[in-house]
Amino acid sequence: MINIPDGAAYILEKLRQAGYEAWVVGGCVRDSIMGREPDDWDITTSALPEQTKSLFKRTIDTGIKHGTVTVMSGKTGYEVTTYRIDGSYSDGRHPDRVTFTRSLEEDLRRRDFTINAMAYNPSQGLVDLFGGVRDLGRRLIRCVGDPGERFDEDALRMMRAVRFAAQLDFQIDPATALAVRERAGNLSRVSAERIRTELVKLICSDHPQLISLACDMGITEVILPEFDRMRGVSQHTANHIYDVEKHTTLTMENIDPDPVLRMTMLMHDMGKPDVRKTRSDGRDIFYGHPEASARHAEEIMRRLKFDNHSREKAVRLVRWHGLKYFPRQASVRRALNRVGDDIFEDFIKVQRADILGKNPSIIPGKLDLLSQKEAVYRKVLREGQCYKTSSLDINGSDLIRAGIRPGPLFGAILEKLTERVIDDQSLNDKKILLKLAMQLKEDPNVFSPLENFKM
After folding, report:
1. 145 φ, ψ (degrees, to nearest 5)
2. Can you state the angle between helices 329-339 and 363-382, rounded to 10 degrees?
3. Which of 13, 118, 278, 398 could form an S-S bond across to 29 if both were Cys, CB 3.0 to 4.6 Å?
4. pLDDT tens digits along 303-318
5. Strands annotated E in 191-310
6. Distance in Å from the first CA to the final CA of the chain
7. Which pLDDT value is given to residue 129?
8. SS3 assignment for 235-246
9. Is 298:315 a contact under the CB 8 Å cutoff?
10. 87 pLDDT exceeds 70?
């Protein structure tokens, strides 16, 4: 017995009473058998799209060319798709044509994996023509029929195989895996948006380390070659015992399953192969790798068409993930100024995950130090300490009234005043700041880089 929500059950019964076959199908059946809560409920039926539309008051033509009508039940929409047989897939995604059929078996035969090719309705029970229940028991991802044909129809199914393995903690059937290795190059024909969606689902699963399986199978070589470059890059330092790839996957496992945070950890060390140098004593050094990694992150997030907010946040987190600062109030204030208070909570999470992917012998000490810094950070916020220009007891209008004209000097003075106050909170007084501003106006070093200030 599968507990079908009222809206879906009503649609099934309405179609049945009108003389049509109708079943819930695909992932909702799989998840129900596994005791998981389905995200959505899809329905397949022998009714043609126009016949389905005639039975229900509120419908949306979401994919009517391919037989799909969304039937609204309250605020919930249910996709109802006519049994169909797909023609050839010239673009590797959409069938060139579809033929509607009266056969449930033909409809199930076109689906990707056996565990997604099961159908159910309350009156007739479960239909499992391709061994889906058996494969659930074996914890196996296996294509329906010939895997090469399934992947030729839609190359994205190769990523879906790895994604389902990660989400369900399953293995991939050997014949299915072989077909992926032979056809991974076809992923170059898939849109960036679809690649991004599957990648995010994979890395936000309970087993993000299976990105390495995607690498084994040739998938990342096509969609994320920056990951392949990390494989085998050793890190002969006191902080590391794993290569860059293994360190990366460990950090992904140790951070919240949020898309931006998981993408940050995936990309945070991608610049290491660019900057790696080995000293005469055999120790590896990776100076400048956060900046190099941030450049890769910018390229990847643009290439995969992430939204601007996610891209900007991830790139900043990658750029600052290696920032060294100390559990002192001035140092933490300066870190807040550099990183930004809008992402500082996530910055701490990123640093914690980074530590958890390092040499186990140094993890306790590193975590203790990070906890000390976090405690100071909480104190800085709690006390409303000044760490940014907008919190100064002086503003642009005050500087203008003091005779300092807007321009490059104007901004440089505000930045230098902020740095002074970060070091010494007692200076955050308008009279004192105005006096300092007039001194800085005549200071030839006023434009010196802020990086000269110590953390």
Report:
1. 70, -140
2. 80
3. 118
4. 999 999 999 999 999 9
5. 277-278, 284-285
6. 63
7. 97
8. CCECCECCCHHH
9. yes
10. no
Q: Give the integer Cα–Cα distance in Å for 441 and 437.
A: 6
Centroid of chain to Cα 410: 40
Looking from the CA of 450 toward its CB, the CA atoms found within 13 Å total 17
For residue 277, pLDDT beyond 50: yes
Q: What are phi and psi of 73, to 5 degrees?
A: -125, 100
Instruction: Quote the CA–CA distance of 338 and 344 in Å, as a whole number.
Output: 10
Tell me the pTM. Answer: 0.92
Return the percentage of the chain with pLDDT > 70, whole number: 96
> Is pLDDT above 90 for 408?
no
Q: What is the DSSP letter of 143?
A: B
Confidence of residue 452 (pLDDT cuts 50, 70, 90): very low
Any alpha helices (H) in 321-441, and if so which ranges?
Answer: 329-339, 344-356, 363-382, 396-401, 408-423, 430-441
Distance between CA atoms of 52 and 391, rounded to whole angstroms? 61
Q: Are 319 and 343 in contact (CB under 8 A)?
A: no
Which residues, including other chains, have CB under 8 Å from residue 373's CB and lie 6 or more apart?
Answer: 325, 326, 327, 332, 335, 348
96 pLDDT higher than 80: no
Cβ–Cβ under 8 Å, residues 226 and 248: no
Beta bridge partners of 107: none
Cα angle, residue 257 at apex, residues 253 and 260 outer, rounded to 5°? 105
Residue type, 44: T
In whole angstroms, what is the distance from residue 224 CA to residue 214 CA? 10
pLDDT tens digits along 183-201: 999 999 999 999 999 999 9
